[in-house]
Amino acid sequence: MMDPMTAIRRARAGQREIVIVGGGFGGLTAAKTLAADRTVHVTVVDRRNHHLFQPLLYQVATAGLNPADIAVPIRSQFSGHPNVAVHLGEVTRVDLRERQVTVRDERRDVALAYDYLILACGARHSYFGRGDWEEYAPGLKTLEQAVEIRRRILSAFEAAENEFDPEVQRALLTFVVVGGGPTGVELAGAIADISRTVLVRDFRRIDPASARVVLVEAGPRILAAFPEGLAQHATADLRQLGVEVHAGTPVDRVDADGVSFGGERLAARSVFWAAGVQAEGVARTLGVDLDRAGRVKVAPDLSIPGHPEAFVIGDLAHAEQDGEVLPGLAPVAIQAGRAAARNILASIHGRPRTPFRYFDKGMMATIGKHKAITALGRARLTGYLAWIAWLFVHILYLIGFRNRVAVLAEWSWSYLFSRRGARLITGREWRT
Amino acid sequence: MMDPMTAIRRARAGQREIVIVGGGFGGLTAAKTLAADRTVHVTVVDRRNHHLFQPLLYQVATAGLNPADIAVPIRSQFSGHPNVAVHLGEVTRVDLRERQVTVRDERRDVALAYDYLILACGARHSYFGRGDWEEYAPGLKTLEQAVEIRRRILSAFEAAENEFDPEVQRALLTFVVVGGGPTGVELAGAIADISRTVLVRDFRRIDPASARVVLVEAGPRILAAFPEGLAQHATADLRQLGVEVHAGTPVDRVDADGVSFGGERLAARSVFWAAGVQAEGVARTLGVDLDRAGRVKVAPDLSIPGHPEAFVIGDLAHAEQDGEVLPGLAPVAIQAGRAAARNILASIHGRPRTPFRYFDKGMMATIGKHKAITALGRARLTGYLAWIAWLFVHILYLIGFRNRVAVLAEWSWSYLFSRRGARLITGREWRT
User: Fold this and answer.
1) Looking at residue A31, what is its pLDDT?
2) Residues A74, A399, B200, B413: what is their CA dihedral angle, to the nearest 10 degrees?
3) CA atoms of A328 and A293, how far apart (whole Å)
4) Spatial contact of A398 and A70, defined as CB atoms under 8 Å apart
5) What is the Cα–Cα distance from B300 to B296, expressed in whole angstroms?
6) Which of A284, A404, B88, B234 is 20 to 30 Å from A74 at the Cα level?
């Protein structure tokens, strides 16, 4: 057993050691930016062995894509870069004073020393103090959760087919999505879509198209981050797909039998959570200023005030621009990852740092099978054209050439034949 | 709550109800053969919602294919056949006298009445009375097990990369496969292959190519069902790949730290089980003659002696031909499924039944990336040519057009670039 206080230093003599915590959009972009410079050694630490293309996670949850279509092994991204190492484990503590992070794996704790640090470990779902709701309403942040949601959706149709009590059958065919952001909208649209197209010919006793899909949002309207006109358009598109949209109705209760919201009780066996997010808990071990969502308040160069060698990016960062906090979106994380890496290289090579400035390339969300909304600067797209734009951008940004090909093939298939290639119910238990 | 003794009968008036237990090769073929005849109604009962192409399961276990590439929803196979219903649940009891089966799902037990029955629920791994070994040595019969084996293989390399004790590192990089049948041979070959090609550039502290892969067989030689010359060829091919082959050495013990066999103790953190099989337990509820492996002894027309309305096929059946028991292979199950279905239709339409005769189309097994052995009648193929034959047959037999395309794409990719598309470690737990 190693003494956890004896920190490992992976860089060779003369190299600076840069530890990046998190292999998401921000961390991976930072690592790729740094990899080309052989005066640095980079260690990417992540709990999981794969980078996940989170914007398409709802497609795994609704049997449209395979888990492997939207995930690439982090290691495989650095096969050609011997100065990048990947360390599988969970960072439980950051010691800014000693410049080391504690990493836990299945076997032990070790400490990794750094010269520069980039914290990019993101956020998880927030149940607003009701962690006990998670059991009944899984979130959608990881592949495991997406496969669990897929299992619940497909199993609900199967159980309804076997059910004789019409009331229970109704509850089994009622799907509630809590949270009207892009994830909630995309998930609700996709559930409505598969029940009306893919599954419709495959059952004998139930009509899958009769499934109720209910989207519940606490705020005054769905897609709060989008311009109001586009959100209205999306609401109309969702209703046309058969999704019931309830805005201004916070959820009061979630249990095994359904949800309560706005004084109403809805019997539903499937509830999914796409509401709040909170920063990963490791931020609390820093001993620095956090905002209400647990995010680290960073300086304009993305470093922690008083710690120019430690950067925070992505969903874990509270970065302000023009008086507003930058949103937790993939493009923000990608641009911040590049900026943080460049600022580290600037310091190493004796150049001045540059304040981070996010360039907004727009926002998009899909609704059902081939509609979307897109806000690109002042341009607004809706319907089919917006969907084509969405398709193009998502294929383009998918990290790893193979995945682009696989996703395009899956989508062409499902588009042409209204089928879903990944309609698998796999259990949690492998034992016989 | 329904009275479980009030059996449900799904057929309409005038239709015969045929219940098929199991959606594997045998059950699915039988259902497809029967579906075209509208004087019958077919109910396929399975614990899982998907038909699994078991011969390629080892490719999922070694990150070559996605789970969805080798599985199709059973329902989707009968979209165009309103006289075929699929019932998700586990058959816990068969009552031959009352002509009904008891099906358990998550909610309750129900009984399904039948006029004709086809039992095709297959076999599971046998640990020869040592069920406690399963924890340390998962078998390879289901998608869940394949994903678990994939998780263990990839996690072992990750843990070895983080390990400082050379002895533990050695045990983490030692993989033992118990059982030298086709599954064991293919699994061992594929583990050796990925450690020497796919993973080799992605680690910094360990050399994945130094991984030990050990194949242990209790019988005097591996691939006992194949001609001896081919088995010798396979042994040589495996050794060339770096697999250590030990025949004539039964395993004495499996635990968390390794295996004991032939008086030797081998420290290994990953042990996989591809040894014996035993028939599914439901056979014991029949009250009829079983063989030592728990299989039902059937008459020449595949029915249970004394019960001309009840058939048993596939791995659950003990069917003899020319004095030998037919082996538990996919082609036997497929041909038997067709024969049982035709015998049922013969009885319904007043024609005589035909005794089942298995037509042996040959056997094949792959060794590593592009070698195989094939026995086709008196012809013997080895090496690359045998591998091409193997590829052709497996693509041809993959049920569902989409899967053929997906598998061919995955294989072309991995063949051209020595990469594996499905290198995902996904956990057992979805909660945060």
Assistant:
1) 97
2) 140
3) 12
4) yes
5) 13
6) A284
Cα gap A409→A65, rounded to integer Å: 10
- The answer to whether B76 contacts A423, with C-beta atoms less than 8 Å apart, is yes
**Interchain contact, B134 vs A78, CB within 8 Å:** no
Mean pLDDT of A350-363: 94
Burial A191-230 (b: 16+ CB within 10 A, else e): bbbbbbbbbeebbbebebeebbbbbbbbeebbbeebeeeb
Which among A68, A80, A425 is the nearest to B48, CB-wise? A425
Phi, psi of A427 (to 5 degrees): -85, 180
* Residue A86: closest C-alpha in chain B: B203
In this structure, are strands B116-119 and B16-21 parallel, antiparallel, or unpaired? parallel
Q: Quick one: DSSP state of residue B221?
A: S
How buried is B383 (Cβ within 10 angstroms: 0-12 exposed, 13-18 middle, 19+ buried)? middle
The minimum CA-CA distance between B127 and chain A, rounded to whole Å, is 11
Q: Which of A87, A91, A109, A114 is nearest to B205 (CA)?
A: A87
Say yes or no for a CB contact (<8 Å) between A202 and B73: yes
Stretch 375-394 of chain B: residues touching chain A, C-beta under 8 Å: none
Residue A64: both structure tokens together: 């449209």
Note if A186 is an active site residue: yes
User: Kindly report the CA angle at B295 between B294 and B296, in degrees rounded to 5?
Assistant: 125
CB atoms within 10 A of CB A166: 8
**What does the alpha-carbon distance between residue B356 and residue B335 come to, in Å, rounded to a whole number?**
9
- How distant is the Cα of A421 from the closest Cα of chain B, in angstroms? 7
Angle, CA A179 vertex, CA A175 and CA A184 arms, to 5°: 65
Nearest CA in chain B to A408: B406
Backbone angles phi, psi at A347, to 5 degrees: -65, -40
* A395 inside 8 A of chain B by CB: no
Q: In the Cβ-directed half-sphere of B424, how many Cα atoms lie within 13 Å?
A: 23
Closest residue in B to A161 (Cα) is: B87
pLDDT for res A224? 92
Q: What's the Rg (C-alpha) of chain B?
A: 23
Nearest chain B residue to A87 by CA: give it.
B162
B387 Cα to chain A: minimum distance (Å): 24
| A106 and B CB contact within 8 Å | yes
pLDDT tens-digit readout, A105-133: 888 899 999 999 999 999 998 999 999 99
**Tokens coding A90:** 């969970």
Q: B191-231 pLDDT, tens per residue?
A: 999 999 889 889 999 999 999 999 999 999 999 989 999 99
Using the predicted structure, report yes or no on whether residue B1 has a pLDDT greater than 50. Answer: no
Nearest to B162 among A87, A135, A155 (CB): A87
B159–A105 CB contact, under 8 Å: yes
Q: Is the ipTM of this complex over 0.95?
A: no
Token couple for B49 = 């919602």
Residue A154: name the closest of A65, A62, A241, A243 by CA.
A62
Q: Which of A85, A86, A106 lies nearest to residue B159, judging by beta carbons?
A: A106
Contact A65, A57 (CB under 8 A): no
Say yes or no for a CB contact (<8 Å) between A145 and B430.
yes
Closest by alpha carbon to A44, among A70, A12, A18?
A: A18
Q: How far apart are CA B8 and CA B105, in angstroms?
A: 15
Q: φ, ψ for residue A266 (rounded to 5)?
A: -120, 120
Is A159 within 8 Å of A294 (Cβ atoms)? no
Q: Which helix (H) or strand (E) holds A413?
A: helix A401-417
Q: In 3-state terms, what secondary structure has residue A412?
A: helix
Is-contact A172 A156, C-beta < 8 A? yes
Q: Residue A432: what pLDDT?
A: 60
Which is catalytic among the residues A106, A158, A167, A186?
A186
Q: Which of A30, A64, A27 is nearest to A368 (CA)?
A: A64
